[in-house]
Amino acid sequence: MSREGRRVWQPLFEEFALTTAFEHHDHIFKRSVLTRGQREASDGVLYLGDGAFGRPPKRVAGPRQTHLGRRWYVDRIERRGHFWRVDIDAAADSAQFTAIDEAGVESDRVVRRRRHHE
Fold this sequence. Notes:
This protein is mainly beta and 118 residues long.
């Protein structure tokens, strides 16, 4: 997410207990650490991105680095076109997010449980 996007949207996501957000700023495969208040936090928001279908993915400089350099909030990053499949389990109050690449191969999976608004 862009710096301006983090400044504007992140406080709202945190206030209303959003567990996961999709962001499509960098055109690469990316999964964030859980973030809250511009810091890593176990009760934070997970950001998933970016897809890059329809255009070549941008370069990845290295672990936890976008083409712009190292970012503290990046947990996993790859130069890969993909989409996220979301499977919701209402009974378990959870959602499973699965990254699937252009060849149909699963490249990442994460499960998030609902957080309740305080």
